[in-house]
Amino acid sequence: MAARKPVKATTRILSRGSVPSRKKAAPKSLFEALPVRTIAVIVGVAGLAALGVALLGPRRFRDDFVRPISAATLVPLAAAVAPQADKVWAETRPWRDQVARVLSSINTEDVRDLIAQRLTQWVDRFR
Questions:
Q1: What is the pLDDT of residues 33-48, one digit of tens each?
Q2: What is the pLDDT of residues 13-37, one digit of tens each?
Q3: Which of 63, 70, 90, 118 pairs with 100 at a CA distance of 20 to 30 A?
Q4: Using only C-alpha atoms, what is the Rg of the chain?
Q5: Is the model's pLDDT at 81 over the cut of 90?
């Protein structure tokens, strides 16, 4: 029979009384913090956009990029919202008329004098 070689353990067995030593984590650098990285990315993107505008020119940038994007997004959105806005405006007409009547009835000389008198009394109370 062939003799077997003893197999070495790959992990070190700790003695009962010892505490495993923990390495201190290296302090994070300032640039690894999330807000600093986010600010750096925003500044970089803004710089690239400014460089693109400077190279193309503001008029060409507006004509080639801004207007087509706004036409593709804002015009269909306005077309979808306009009928609903008109409907809501028409439905709120009685309420708007009532609010206008209440405001016009409040805006009289007598009411303004009464409000000024009460405000003066209230201010005098705190003196």
A1: 678 888 989 999 999 9
A2: 656 665 556 666 666 666 666 788 8
A3: 118
A4: 37
A5: no
- CA dist., res. 103 & res. 75, Å (int): 37
Other beta carbons within 10 angstroms of residue 9's beta carbon come to: 7
3-state helix, strand, coil in the chain (%, to 5): 70, 0, 30
Task: Say if residues 61 and 52 touch (Cβ distance below 8 Å).
Answer: yes
CA distance to 42, 54, 82, per residue, from 46 (Å): 6, 12, 34
Residue 100 vs residues 94, 110, 113: alpha-carbon distances, Å: 10, 18, 21
pLDDT average, residue stretch 41-66: 90
Closest listed residue to residue 42, CA positions, set 54, 30, 34: 34
Cβ(31)–Cβ(37) below 8 Å? yes
106 vs 115: CA distance, rounded Å: 10
